[in-house]
Amino acid sequence: MPQQKSSNSLRRITSHEVALRAGVSQSTVSRVFSGDERLSEATRERVLGIARDLGYKPNAIARSLITRRTKIIGLVASYMTNPFFPVVLQAFTQRLHELGWRVLLFTAGTSEDVDELLPEVLAYQVDGLIIVTASLSSQMTREVLQRGTPVVLFNRYAPGSGASAVSCANYEGGRLVAEVLLDAGHKRLAYITGRADTSTNVDRQRGFLERLAERKSHCKIELGNFTYAGGFDAALRLLKSKKRPDAIFCANDITALGALDAARKLGVRVPDELSVIGFDDIPMAQWTAYDLTTVRQPVEEMIEASVELLLERVNNINLGSVLKFLPGTLVRRGSARLQP
Amino acid sequence: MPQQKSSNSLRRITSHEVALRAGVSQSTVSRVFSGDERLSEATRERVLGIARDLGYKPNAIARSLITRRTKIIGLVASYMTNPFFPVVLQAFTQRLHELGWRVLLFTAGTSEDVDELLPEVLAYQVDGLIIVTASLSSQMTREVLQRGTPVVLFNRYAPGSGASAVSCANYEGGRLVAEVLLDAGHKRLAYITGRADTSTNVDRQRGFLERLAERKSHCKIELGNFTYAGGFDAALRLLKSKKRPDAIFCANDITALGALDAARKLGVRVPDELSVIGFDDIPMAQWTAYDLTTVRQPVEEMIEASVELLLERVNNINLGSVLKFLPGTLVRRGSARLQP
DNA sequence: CTGAAAGCGCTTACAG
DNA sequence: CTGAAAGCGCTTACAG
């Protein structure tokens, strides 16, 4: 097949050309595609037919300029190494697409990156912003909200920032884990932390410790940093210590998988000698090598709630901010010895 | 803090307002931000200062309309359950951001979804398209290319479609695995397939089988579907059969992890009784529970090459399509008994 | 039910 | 070095 000449096929079709061929005004063509009611069936059909023939589709950029709505949501994500986030990302884009919105994606390593990147996102006039686990500086949050762009934080919250947020009820989740571990008679408890600057870690830890305290118990704490390697190393330290724990609660699943592999390496039998509980319920928690007992985040409901909160505020900028905490549920698998 | 009135802060600042305050024409403001050379330092500074005070940033949508360039790349991805793709996604957005491009994200389950979604992407006048592992129908590919939007396929290719593509040298990778397994004296080989309709699976399998045939060997084949569960079940079938294999090559890493867990469940010792080799080198391949020997895809180079191919074609639509295959490298870990 | 016209917020020849 | 003006491709009052 010879190299195809693209000279004429390159011309993007506009509503003017469709109008010309259909013998109507450009306004009429526009009305056909903007869902205007008052149009005779005849003209609508004719325009639609010609548009189809020509492969015409309205230019969303031009439409955005005049309507001052892009129908684009900016999605800022980080920590893609945690398998929880691809799942979340996928669910968000799926849901937003279903509702007719587009997603402009930003991934960031650090929160400074986010602050630098955000003006670029805003230049594209996104109608709203979803921040998945990346953290926004409170100053930037204020700026964004001030220009009338609603923000929803997912999996973290920042009270007083003006941003709405949807998160798992991490505090209650932490309490729940403390409860079931104590109920099952565990005596030497440990917690492997996530990043100290995240509300997820802070709340899970606080819930766990507070419930332990209420029941006159306590626990060792090791740093884990929300990573597999962090969990592995932390568990190694715990399991090699003189009074080895008989139960470890990990700040999230990926940490717990590391802890389980540490136990496996040391020959510590799970769950007979050691119970391990995580948080998230990522796909790997079900893998037979792990069979991880964990607190499941209600991802679907969290996504649904986030999108709803955001789109409400896109439509009505005057709505105040809302913090929403959805309860997690304990998923009992083989990595923890619990009462039935 | 009382509810803040947003009535006036909601007005988006335009170049007109900046011009007014700076006592210059709107054209001049525009020139400051479009990097026009011929401007006195004095006016440039003054405009910049006022813009900063007002929080002005050019509206990218308006700019896109007039320049007919959005600086947006559409990224279509699927199979987010395979940990390889989040890594790729992250790397792509990072790289494109560095170069000043934005990413409009589309995730799709099936290829029919992609075909349906694509016109929506195109409505936003994306300057180029990267398709990560999702498959585009050849008809849709043709349409996209015809309107002058270059396409790069990542991790698959479609010769004759007109789309450029970057992929790992999967065929050679398959041959390499055959070679090292035979060299180490393995006698009973098996291959666990991925999805039959993907070039990655087809090429890895063909390379593996052809090299085996050249060395007068052959292998069993089981269906794995590129998933953990698929790998697990396939390996279970293989390992329970009368003539149990002593080496399994898996179409990708996630499949191989399933296979390793199947071996673990049956008490088959790795690598003494069984060698397992994967393809990709996902983060989990390093986990101590797996320590997977695998063919590493040169992700960084592949991303770099894809972005380069794409942007070249964005700048010059007349460039022909190019298929690029980058060699993978064997990463020797503990899951296979190989010669040093 | 339909058209002419204004305008969204920019860039960029064209003059000077 | 700078300004006035046209125009990117739409939507949407305003008339009729």
Describe the protein's architecture and organization:
Two copies of one chain form a homodimer. Chain A contains twelve helices and twelve strands. The first copy, chain A, has 340 residues and is of the alpha/beta class. Chain A has three domains: 15-58, lambda repressor-like DNA-binding domains (434 Repressor (Amino-terminal Domain)); 68-168 and 299-328, Response regulator (Rossmann fold, 3-Layer(aba) Sandwich), CATH 3.40.50; 170-297, Rossmann fold (3-Layer(aba) Sandwich). Chain A has a six-stranded parallel beta sheet, with helices on both faces. In chain A, α1 packs across α2, α5 (84-98) packs across α12 (299-315) and α8 packs parallel to α9 (199-214). Chain A is elongated and about 85 Å long. Chains A and B meet through α4, α5, β2, α6 and α11 of A and α4, α5, β2, α6 and α11 of B. β2 of chain A pairs antiparallel with β2 of chain B. Chain A binds a DNA duplex (16 and 16 nucleotides) through α2 and α4.
Say which CATH homologous superfamily of the largest domain in chain A is assigned.
Response regulator
Q: Characterize the main sheet of chain A.
A: 6 strands, parallel
Amino-to-carboxy terminus distance of chain A? 69 Å
Instruction: Give the beta-strand count of chain A.
Output: 12
Order of helices and strands of chain A: HHHHEHEHEHEEHEHEHEHEEHEE
CATH topology of the largest domain in chain A: Rossmann fold
State the helix count of chain A: 12
CATH architecture of the largest domain in chain A: 3-Layer(aba) Sandwich
* Structural domain tally of chain A: 3
Helix content of chain A: 40-55%
Strand order of the largest sheet of chain A: 2-1-3-4-5-11
- Tell me the radius of gyration of chain A: 26 Å
Shape of chain A: elongated
Kindly report the oligomeric state of this protein. Answer: homodimer
What percentage of the residues of chain A does DSSP assign to strands (E)?
Answer: 15-25%
